[in-house]
Automatic annotation (TrEMBL):
Keywords: Transferase
Pathway involvement of the protein, from the record: Carbohydrate metabolism; tricarboxylic acid cycle; isocitrate from oxaloacetate: step 1/2
SUPFAM superfamilies: Citrate synthase (SSF48256)
Assigned EC number: 2.3.3.16
Region (Disordered) residue spans: 250-270
GO molecular function, one term: citrate synthase activity
Protein name (database record): citrate synthase (unknown stereospecificity)
Gene Ontology process terms (BP): carbohydrate metabolic process; tricarboxylic acid cycle
Cellular compartments per GO CC: cytosol
Signal sequence, start to end: none
Pfam families: Citrate_synt (PF00285)
Family the UniProt entry places it in: Belongs to the citrate synthase family.
Length: 270
C-alpha cells in the first residue's frame, strides 16, 4: 500500500500536458514526435508547445515574421555585446547564450511585453464602449501614471523617424487581417498610439519600433504579454549564437567593453 502511494506521489510530483514520454515513445500534446518531424515548421512547433494547439498557416507566418525581425541589433545591444565578451572568456556556447539571455530584462528585452500590456489596456476600454482615440488616451494616461513618460514600443535611439522593421511587420499584419487570420484591431491601436504620441510631441514623428510592431503581432495572435518577452528571447538567441560563434572564430581573449588603452573615467567621491 505504501509503495503504491509513494509511486503515485512521485508520478504526480510534476504534472504536464506538454509531453508524454516513456521508453520508445515520445508524444507532444497527444501527437507522436514522428508525425511532427518533417511536417511541422519550427514556428508552428513553438506555438504548438506553448499555446497547446496548432496554429493556422497565417498565424504561423506572422509568428515567424516576428521571430525573424528581432534576431539581432548589433554589438551595441547589451545582450549581443555580452555574447561576444563572454565568448572571449573561454565559455562554451551554452554558457555564452545563458549569460546573454540573462541580460534581457525590463529595459533591454522587456519592452514588447510592456507594450502588449498597453495595447490590451486600450482594447479593454474599446470593449467597454470607448472610441479608439479615447481608449488610447486613457491607456496612455494610465501608462504615464504608472510608468512615466517613455512609452515602450515607440521611439528609437538609432532609427529616426522610422524603424525599418516596423512598416514591414505592420504590412504583414494588415495582409493577415485581410485574409481573416487576425482581426487587425491591435494594428489599429498601435498606429493610433503612434499618431497620438506624435501629436504630443508637437507633430514630430515618432517611430513605432520593433517592440511596438511585434507587440501588435503577439496581441493579434492572442498571446498574453509575458509571452512577448519569452518569444523575443527565442528570437534574440539566434543573434546571440551567431555573434558568439563569430567571435570564437575571430579569437581574442578576455575582451572587455572597450579597448585596453581606454579606461573608464575615475570620479572620486565628493
Amino acid at each position: 500500500m505504501q509503495d503504491r502511494q509513494d509511486k503515485q506521489a512521485i508520478e504526480h510530483w510534476w504534472r504536464t500536458s506538454i509531453i508524454d514520454m516513456s521508453p520508445g515513445r515520445i508524444s507532444f500534446r497527444g501527437k507522436p514526435i514522428e508525425e511532427l518531424i518533417g511536417t511541422v515548421s519550427f514556428p508552428q512547433m513553438i506555438w504548438f508547445m506553448v499555446i497547446g494547439e496548432m496554429p493556422s498557416e497565417g498565424q504561423a507566418k506572422l509568428l515567424e515574421a516576428a521571430l525573424v525581425s528581432a534576431v539581432d541589433h548589433g554589438p551595441q545591444a547589451p545582450s549581443i555585446a555580452a555574447s561576444r565578451m563572454a565568448a572571449t572568456c573561454g565559455l562554451g556556447l551554452n554558457n555564452v547564450m545563458a549569460t546573454s539571455l540573462n541580460m534581457l530584462g525590463d529595459v533591454h528585452g522587456g519592452a514588447g511585453e510592456q507594450c502588449a500590456e498597453l495595447y490590451y489596456w486600450v482594447s479593454e476600454h474599446i470593449e467597454n464602449g470607448k472610441t479608439r482615440e479615447d481608449a488610447v488616451n486613457l491607456g496612455l494616461a494610465r501608462w504615464r501614471e504608472e510608468r512615466g513618460k517613455i512609452v515602450s514600443g515607440f521611439g528609437h535611439r538609432f532609427h529616426k523617424p522610422v524603424d525599418p522593421r516596423a512598416p514591414r511587420l505592420m504590412a504583414l499584419v494588415r495582409s493577415a487581417a485581410k485574409d481573416g487570420f487576425v482581426t487587425g484591431q491591435f494594428a489599429d491601436i498601435g498606429e493610433t498610439i503612434q499618431d497620438q504620441l506624435a501629436r504630443d510631441r508637437g507633430g514630430r514623428p515618432l517611430a513605432m519600433n520593433i517592440d511596438g510592431a511585434t507587440a501588435v503581432i503577439f496581441c493579434e495572435l492572442g498571446f498574453p504579454p509575458p509571452l512577448a518577452r519569452g518569444v523575443f528571447c527565442l528570437s534574440r538567441s539566434v543573434g546571440i549564437l551567431a555573434h558568439a560563434w563569430e567571435q570564437m572564430q575571430q579569437g581574442g581573449r578576455n575582451k572587455g567593453p572597450m579597448p585596453p588603452k581606454f579606461l573608464p573615467e575615475y570620479q572620486p567621491e565628493e
